[in-house]
Automatic annotation (TrEMBL):
Family (UniProt): Belongs to the ERG28 family.
GO terms assigned for molecular function: protein-macromolecule adaptor activity
Primary subcellular site in the record, as a coarse category: endoplasmic reticulum
Membrane-topology annotation of the record: Multi-pass membrane protein
Gene Ontology cellular-component annotations: endoplasmic reticulum membrane
Keyword Membrane part of the UniProt annotation: yes
GO terms classed as biological process: sterol biosynthetic process
UniProt-listed InterPro entries: Erg28 (IPR005352)
Transmembrane listed as a keyword: yes
Keywords assigned: Endoplasmic reticulum, Lipid biosynthesis, Lipid metabolism, Membrane, Steroid biosynthesis, Steroid metabolism, Sterol biosynthesis, Sterol metabolism, Transmembrane, Transmembrane helix
Regions crossing the membrane: 20-40, 61-80, 92-109, 116-134
Protein name: Ergosterol biosynthetic protein 28
Length: 142
């Protein structure tokens, strides 16, 4: 157990300063949890897409899981490399794409309705995007 604790301490000590990298890791952990559950059930995803829950098929759930897992991995790498412009930009784009998806599902495609399951990813996307844009110059070194 001490060995695992030591390894985790070493890993987290290499994070850049501030809470943003920790936030990115936290949202990545949530994304990975969401991915795992989507591989096995679409129950939670049907709540997010409540207006068209019948369109959330097992295949759609698995595709969503794969997409969420991939952006979670981008965000993990970004968390550890916030001084790298490319990684920082990829982190920003990952939240921009997510926000675009959820806003379009709410206002254009009508798959979502404003409820707690829908608002959770919206709040994460808006908060993360705002935070990353406002702290760009603090982390990115050209």
């Amino acid at each position: 157990m001490e060995n695992i604790t030591g390894q985790l301490t070493e890993i987290f000590s290499s994070l850049p300063e501030g809470n943003l990298p920790r936030w990115l890791l936290f949202t990545s952990a949530l994304g990975i949890f969401n991915s795992v559950q989507n591989y096995f059930t679409s129950k939670l995803t049907k709540q997010v897409y409540a207006n068209k829950a019948n369109e959330v098929t097992p295949l759609a759930g698995r595709l969503f899981a794969t997409w969420t897992w991939s952006v979670s991995m981008i965000r993990i790498y970004a968390a550890f490399h916030l001084n790298n412009k490319i990684m920082y930009d990829l982190g920003i784009w990952s939240y921009t794409i997510a926000l675009t998806h959820f806003v379009s599902e709410l206002f254009i495609f009508g798959g979502c309705k404003i409820n707690v399951p829908f608002m959770s990813p919206m709040i994460v996307a808006v908060t993360s995007l705002t935070w990353m844009i406002s702290h760009y110059d603090k982390y990115v070194t050209n």
